[in-house]
Specification:
The complex is a heterodimer of chains A (259) and B (357). Chain A has 259 residues and is an alpha/beta fold. Chain A contains eleven helices and ten strands. Chain A has a six-stranded mixed β-sheet, with helices on both faces. Chain A has a four-stranded antiparallel β-sheet with strand order 2-1-4-5, with helices on one face. In chain A, strand 9 and strand 10 (230-235) form a beta hairpin. The mean pLDDT of chain A is 91. Chain B has 357 residues and is mostly helical. Chain B has a domain at 30-262. Chain B is 71% helix and 0% strand. In chain B, helix 3 runs antiparallel to helix 4 (92-118) and helix 8 (203-213) crosses helix 10. The longest helix of chain B is centred in the N-terminal third of the chain and has 27 residues, at 92-118. Chain B is globular. Chain B starts with a helix and ends in a 19-residue tail after the last helix. Classes of the chains: A alpha/beta (259), B mainly alpha (357). The interface between A and B is large, with 45 and 35 residues.
């Protein structure tokens, strides 16, 4: 069973090919890494999966039996694909709690009219969602900061808040774009444990793009390697680490020959 | 029980508004002052409606007068025709059905145009969107003021029935019934204020503010930009149409609905109110609306004093109405320098907790 399946996905910007004929399957319930040198097209793959970019015709992007290729970003999110961003995108003028609460609008049972009239249904709904948001903040150790502005948070906390916000969607697939960027050794180690815990607790599939090899090798069960927009390898961390084409991509051809 | 409690405030508002309806003519003898108070109320409604687009959704609309105008004309036509068909005293009892019919048809007609203007907002941002909204308002005003009856009939003839440049005065030119008293104006002000606060602090308002902060991130958590942007335009247009609907049938107001009341000047006044008070703040919009209403009146009063009249007589070129623009400009520049976020920023007066509710 694959939670996410890309087959022959390509994306060109003008004449530039950012992603070329990429195919991979992410097994359900796994922690899957997408790695590659700078400019390999990792974030573009995320943007294609979440609908920020529309893939070139020909390939297909699926989550189980849901075709993601034809959907808009908000629909993809509602279908259960949540993500974080490489360059943290929080809502600056909303509080930490409100940032998380925004992500539950698609799950709300009551509409705008009941909000205007403050019906009992609306109030129950709101109380339940708020409770869940606070619970998620507790999970990420942010509950004490619920009323703070997200801009006042440390870098690591901002990253964690983004994950909490993504989790509010109750996703089936969680895409993490460089979650360890800017974290120190200890924080990164904590992140590994958190990612595993998330996967087990919420029965998620996690896909991460990451430069921090400590995190990638430590947490991923399978890794897909991209270089210049093309797939060059896939396997377990050990297989990938030993793959000559991966070494060549990261360190140059000569290094691969020396190996 | 809680369901009933959610409606309770409106009952209180109705009672307060009724008290105002009965006491205002006795407390305030001067009808022009009463008119000013009610005009202030209508301006509060306009500012609150614009605040949804300019403040909460963070889009720049400079055509709010168009929405107010659509509402004003629709309401005037409905009320004047109903009054002509079913004549009677302009009593409070009569207003209980006539005013809601007029005001709601004004608000609904305006909301339809909200969809129309809201759709381009999906592709346009900033200045470009501003031009679309301004274009809509001006096209509406000019269509009405230049429409002349033709032999062939058609849309122009239909529009000509609205009186062209001279304004609309009902089917028999008897004037639009001035039936909406203080009860309706203040009931609307209180109710709309509460609804605006509730929307701002609901999930919808939160999503709208999130969209303003970062569209890509908002979409990534399921907030559909299309739906929210168009809804914000529709709600804003509905509110402006409601204000216009009251304006054209307001007691002590003008029995003729004129196209020039909905010129760019009106839109600009609305923007001044929202920006002065603080974009996104409900109480700020209210304060801004009150400030602007009374500055206009203050300058009018100044003009009628003997000293100013004497200056005016000796300097014929002096246009004191233009002074108002000088005052606004000065105040706006001062606010932008001292408090770029407006009087209240996005906060509310008497807000509980840091960002609670």
């Amino acid at each position: 069973m694959s939670a996410l399946e890309l087959s022959h996905v390509s994306k060109t910007f003008g004449g530039l090919s950012a992603v070329k004929d990429v195919s991979f399957r992410v097994p359900a319930g796994s922690i899957f890494g997408v790695i590659g040198p700078n400019g390999a097209g990792k974030t573009t793959v995320f943007n294609l999966v979440t609908g920020v970019y529309r893939a070139d015709p020909g390939g297909s992007l699926r989550m189980g039996d849901v075709d993601l290729g034809a959907k808009k970003p908000a629909e993809i999110a509602a279908a259960g694909v949540a993500r974080t961003f490489q360059n943290i995108r929080l809502f600056a003028k909303l509080s930490v709690l409100e940032n998380v609460l925004v992500a539950c609008e698609t799950k709300r049972a009551t509409g705008l009219l009941s909000a205007a009239l403050r019906t009992a249904g609306f109030l129950d709904d709101e109380a339940a969602l708020r409770e869940r948001a606070l619970e998620l903040l507790r999970v990420f150790d942010l509950h004490a900061l619920a009323d703070h502005a997200p801009t006042s948070l440390s870098y690591g906390n901002q990253r964690r808040l983004e994950i909490a916000r993504a989790m509010m969607l109750r996703p089936r697939v969680l895409l993490l774009d460089e979650p360890a960027a800017g974290m120190n050794y200890g924080e990164a180690e904590g992140l590994e444990a958190q990612i595993r815990w998330l996967r087990d607790e919420f029965e998620l599939t996690v896909v991460l793009v990451e430069h921090n090899m400590q995190v990638v090798m430590g947490v991923c069960e399978r890794i897909h390697v991209l270089d210049h927009g093309e797939s060059i390898a896939e396997g377990t961390p050990d297989e990938v680490r030993r793959d000559p084409s991966v070494i060549a991509a990261y360190l140059g051809d000569e290094a691969a020959e020396d190996e | 029980m809680r369901g009933a409690r959610s409606l309770a405030p409106f009952a209180v508002f109705a009672a307060v508004a009724l008290a105002l309806e009965l006491s205002l003519p006795r407390v305030v003898a001067d009808s022009s002052v009463r008119q000013l108070l009610m005009l202030g109320g209508v301006n509060v409604l306009i500012a609150l409606s614009l605040n949804v687009i300019n403040g909460m959704a963070g889009q720049f609309s400079i055509g709010q007068a168009g929405f107010v105008g659509v509402g004003a004309y629709a309401s005037a036509v409905v009320v004047a025709n109903l009054q002509a068909r079913f004549p009677g005293d302009l009593s409070l009892a009569r207003s209980l059905w006539l005013v809601p019919l007029g005001v709601l048809s004004g608000a609904s007609a305006s909301a339809l145009f909200g969809v129309l203007v809201g759709l381009p907002s999906l592709r346009l941002r900033g200045d470009y969107l501003a031009i679309v909204t301004l274009g809509f308002a001006e096209i509406f005003r000019l269509l009405i003021s230049t429409a002349a009856a033709t032999d062939t009939g058609g849309l122009t003839s239909l529009l000509a029935k609205l009186g062209g440049q001279n304004g609309y005065a009902g089917p028999n030119e008897l004037g639009v019934p001035q039936i909406a008293g203080p009860f309706w104006v203040f009931f609307a002000v209180m109710s709309v204020t509460l609804l605006a606060l509730r929307l701002k602090f609901s999930g919808w308002g939160r999503a709208l503010r999130a969209l303003r902060e970062d569209e890509i991130a908002a979409a990534a958590v399921g907030v559909d930009p299309t739906r929210y942007k168009v809804t914000s335009f529709v709600i804003s247009a509905f509110g402006a149409g409601l204000a216009g609907g009251l304006l054209s049938i307001m007691r002590d107001g003008s029995p003729i609905t004129q196209p020039d009341n909905f010129s760019f000047q009106t839109s600009f006044d609305a923007i001044t109110m929202v920006i002065l008070g603080g974009s996104g703040s409900v109480s700020g919009s209210i304060l801004g609306a009150i400030f602007v209403t009374f500055t206009i009146k203050l300058i009018e009063l100044l003009q009628s004093t003997d000293a100013v009249q004497a200056i005016k007589a000796s300097h014929e070129w002096l246009d004191l109405n233009a002074l108002r623009m000088v005052v606004y400009a000065g105040v706006l520049i001062a606010v932008m320098i001292l408090r770029p976020e407006g009087l209240l920023g996005e906060r509310e007066l008497f807000q509980r907790g840091a960002r609670g509710r």
